[in-house]
Amino acid sequence: MIKYYCGVVFIIRVTTPGEEWDPESVRAFLFRMIKREFGFDYIPEYHGDIVNLEEYYLEPERNTFLLACIGDRLVGTLGLRAYDREFRGLNYDPERTASLWRVFVHEDWRRMGVASYLVGIAESFAAEKGYTGIYLHTHKNVDGALDFWLSRGYRIVMDTDNELGTVHMEKSLNRNSMGNLDSVEPVLP
């Protein structure tokens, strides 16, 4: 999917098994973003999906990984997979609930519509694959994160009040709850 703005090419790629792409540069981008936002490096119990991108996001038919690129520069990511976590107090059916992971936009490209566009594509993909809802968790201490998800129609189902400020959220997928991609236009600097 390609969109043109102000003479700059804004590309959203849905990665697929066997496609020519550079998973190592994607992993490096993700770990840089995690270090910047949360201050820590690789933690096996939290980051196994990053090490195994193909296994988690590309091989299962109902999962995907999106890359937002400006030219050949990676500026954003989003992973969607069947719900596969067990958080105390939350119970989702993986056949009906997708989960969003690794939603990151490089700081130079924030508040320009990149994340909104990625999320819109992911929501449409999830609905096409038969999911009826989406789960995610975000962090209140990441500037703008909670407000972004609330503005996209996600609702808080649990606020952990932990040191990371983790908030669990969900959204039902139906025609009225999903954004119109045509109305989301990234604003390039």
Give a structural overview.
With 189 residues, the chain is α+β, with helices and mostly antiparallel strands. It has five helices and eight strands. The protein has helices at residues 23-38, 44-51, 53-58, 114-128, 145-151, and strands spanning 2-5, 8-15, 64-70, 73-82, 97-105, 133-139, 155-159, 166-172. An eight-stranded mixed β-sheet has the order 1-2-3-4-5-6-8-7, sandwiched between helices. Strand 3 (64-70) and strand 4 form a beta hairpin. The longest helix is centred in the N-terminal third of the chain and has 16 residues, at 23-38. The two termini are 21 Å apart.
Compute the separation of the termini in Å: 21 Å
Q: Look at the structure and give the mean pLDDT.
A: 83
Please give the count of helices: 5
Largest sheet: 8 strands, mixed
Strand order of the largest sheet: 1-2-3-4-5-6-8-7
What is the CATH topology classification name? Aminopeptidase
Helix content: 25-40%
As residue ranges, the low-confidence spans are 1-10, 181-189
Q: Architecture, according to CATH?
A: 3-Layer(aba) Sandwich
- Calculate Rg over CA atoms: 16 Å
CATH superfamily: Gcn5-related N-acetyltransferase (GNAT)
Instruction: Using the alpha-carbon principal axes, give the shape.
Output: globular
String of helices and strands: EEHHHEEEHEHEE
